[in-house]
Amino acid sequence: MLKHLMIAVDWFGPYSSVKEARDAARPYDWPGLYMLIGKVGEEEASRAQYVGISASLSGRLTARHHKLGSEAIEARGIRDLRLWLGEVTTAEPGGKKMKITRATLNYSEWLHARFMKLPLNDLRTKTLPDRSVTVLNRWWKTDFATLQARRPHPDWPNLIDFPHYGLPARTVWFGGKQRTFSNADNYAHPE
What we know:
The chain is an alpha+beta fold. It is built from five helices and eight strands; from the N terminus they run E-H-E-E-H-H-E-H-E-E-E-E-H.
């Protein structure tokens, strides 16, 4: 049995364009995540739309990106775009490993896409992770040093917990809001 994987992600932003996010990532060029918040089509309110991962954030965030590129943004009618860059700040359990592994990136993306029901993530919303995993989110300003006073969007939880052992999965908003998924049927179709 695999040990429970705990992942902390530090998110930096917001950036108002793909170019601005790419320029911010370029000096560090770490493997990481990126989250798109905005309005699509006729939506009146901004919401989290898409999460992605890359071994090189500055190399991935380009005008040719399949979801974030200028043609894709125009075709989908994305407005009020805000991007957040995520850095995994924990290691996988057991043994000496790199701080950021492909597994920590994959599971971070998977839990965000699945439990936040991100509309532009097609694949990661259809199945459940194959192991027990928890993701803790923290948000920072673009100076990479100042903690954000508030989360970027009310629907973005502080904690996503998927125990995988028949226990309830949870999305948790520190400060009181919590949603519990009581059984496997509810994992597939959260309320």
